[in-house]
Structures are given as C-alpha cells and as structure tokens.
C-alpha cells in the first residue's frame, strides 16, 4: 500500500516560494495501475519524484509498503530504489553501446547476480515485452517503442513492487505508444507491480485502473 498523508512540497526559487504540492493525501492499493494527469506544472513529476525517493516533502508523510520515505536517510532510500522500485523515463535511457538484453540484465549484474541467471531473467523480461527477436539489437537499431519496451523490461527485471513512469509514451508516435501501453496493461493484469504513470495522453490515462487528476498542486475533485 502507498500512503501519502498531508504531503506538501514547497520549492524556494528566486521568484519566491513555489507550492508544487499542497496537502496531498492519497492511498494506492497494491497492483493498481494509476495514471496521474493534469496540466503542466500541476505537480505530477514532483509527486513521482517523492514516491521514487528522489525528493523529500516539505511536510507530510509518505509510506510505501510500510517504509517511511519522508525523513529516511540516504542508505535507506538507496536500498528502497535498488530493491523495490523500477523507473521508466520519457527518453528511454538505454545505454547505446549495449544490446537490448545487455541493457535489461545490467541491473542484475550490478547487484551481483550470476551472468547465466541474469541472462535468463533478462530474456524472460524481453519475452514479456515482445522483444525476444530484438534481444541482440542495439538501441540505435530499434524503434522508439522497442526502446521503451526494453526500458520497461529493464525496470522490472529485479522484480520491484512499484514501477514509476513519467510520460512513458510522451516521445512516441501513436503506434509505438499503443504497444508500450499494452505492455503496461499486461504488467498490471499479471499483477507484477503497482504502476504509477504520469501522462498527458488520454489513451494512456484510459488504460489505467485509476485516474489521479491533479490541478495546481492538489488532487482534483
Ligand atoms: N527544482 C525546482 N525548483 C523550483 N520549482 C520547481 C522545481 N521543480 C518543479 N518546480 C515547480 O513546481 C511546480 C510543479 O512542477 P512539476 O514538475 O511537478 O509539474 P508537472 O505537473 O510534472 O508538469 P509537466 O506536465 O510540465 O511535466 C511547477 O510550478 C514547477 O515550476
Ligand atoms: Mg512533469
């Protein structure tokens, strides 16, 4: 379970205080597929960064599966990100000098998994993503949608309980966006992780189980 209780995030900027989140309280049940929507600047990325342990609230409490993120120290937050969290970025962020399967297995190798096991698991994830035939392609040989599906496979390879994605289809044409969305739907329907995505796309929001519309740093009614 994910719980935010009276969470606020105030940025100090040259122009004064920016209230990116204002008293947000929210619960998200395990294995929900949630879409955070709303106009530019309403606080979507701020919310995701807090859930990713990349930023701290100015006030309020954030708990993910019993772990308090607000006020947690760097060691705890690093362990949280490494063990429980998968993140997908708008621009895929695959390493260009590595093939798809090498990109996907990398997190496992970095955490000390044996090469053989890592490769098997990475191939399983590429299969889930419909990329078995592209395993040995380099990113520059792949379409945007293929790269993003490989990035999703990489984000899930270590079996995180929470997958965060900020505009995962924001840089894709509609065909590729649809393929990435159907992969996310498959992940949700197999209960592999809780999914929280930020999106401007009505198609993306529509495939989620739950909409979390925001406006001006608050949850919209
Ligand atoms: N590091 C920062 N310093 C100061 N202000 C910031 C910072 N990061 C975000 N903000 C401000 O906080 C508010 C919320 O930003 P956020 O990035 O969460 O919006 P968003 O909903 O993700 O927008 P977009 O759809 O454009 O990505 C905005 O007014 C933004 O300018
Ligand atoms: Mg944003």
Describe the structure.
The chain has a single domain (2-219), classed as P-loop containing nucleotide triphosphate hydrolases (Rossmann fold). It is globular and about 50 Å long. 36% of the residues lie in helices and 27% in strands. It has helices at residues 44-51, 74-84, 100-110, 115-128, 144-156, 174-189, 202-207; strands spanning 2-13, 16-28, 33-37, 59-64, 67-68, 85-88, 162-166, 194-198, 210-215, 218-219. The longest helix has 16 residues, at 174-189. The model has no long low-confidence stretch (mean pLDDT 95). With 221 residues, it is α/β, with parallel strands linked by helices. A six-stranded mixed sheet has the order 6-7-8-3-9-10, sandwiched between helices. Adenosine-5'-triphosphate is lined by residues 11, 13, 18, 20, 40-46.
Report the CATH architecture: 3-Layer(aba) Sandwich
CATH topology: Rossmann fold
The tally of structural domains comes to 1
Which ions and ligands are bound to the chains? adenosine-5'-triphosphate, magnesium ion
SS strand fraction: 25-35%
**Count of alpha/pi helices:** 7
Spatial extent as radius of gyration: 17 Å
CATH top level is Alpha Beta
Quote the average pLDDT: 95
* Series of H and E elements: EEEHEEHEHHHEHEHEE
Query: Which structural class best describes the helix and strand composition?
Result: alpha/beta
C-alpha geometry: globular
Largest sheet, described in full? 6 strands, mixed
CATH superfamily grouping? P-loop containing nucleotide triphosphate hydrolases
Sequence stretches where pLDDT stays below 50 over 5 or more residues = none
What topology, given as strand order, has the largest sheet? 6-7-8-3-9-10
| Overall strand count | 10
């Amino acid at each position: 379970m994910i719980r935010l209780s009276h969470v606020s995030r105030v940025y100090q900027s040259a122009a004064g205080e920016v209230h990116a989140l204002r008293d947000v309280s929210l619960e998200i049940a395990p294995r929900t597929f949630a879409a955070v929507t709303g106009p530019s600047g309403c606080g979507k990325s701020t919310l995701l960064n807090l859930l990713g342990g990349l930023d701290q609230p100015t006030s309020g409490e954030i708990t993910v599966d019993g772990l308090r993120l607000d006020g947690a120290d760097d060691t705890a937050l690093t362990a949280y990100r490494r063990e429980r969290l998968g993140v997908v970025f708008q621009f895929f962020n695959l390493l260009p000098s590595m093939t798809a399967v090498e990109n996907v297995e990398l997190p496992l190798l970095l955490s000390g998994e044996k090469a053989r096991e890592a490769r098997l698991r990475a191939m399983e994830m590429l299969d889930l993503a419909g990329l078995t035939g592209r395993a040995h392609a380099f990113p520059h040989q792949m379409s945007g949608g293929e790269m993003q599906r490989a990035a999703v496979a990489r984000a899930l390879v270590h079996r995180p309980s929470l997958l965060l994605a900020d505009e995962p289809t924001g840089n894709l044409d509609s065909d590729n966006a649809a393929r990435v969305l159907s992969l996310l739907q498959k992940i949700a329907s197999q209960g592999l992780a809780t999914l929280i995505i930020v999106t401007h796309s009505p198609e993306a929001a529509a495939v989620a189980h739950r909409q979390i519309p925001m406006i001006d740093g608050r949850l919209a009614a």
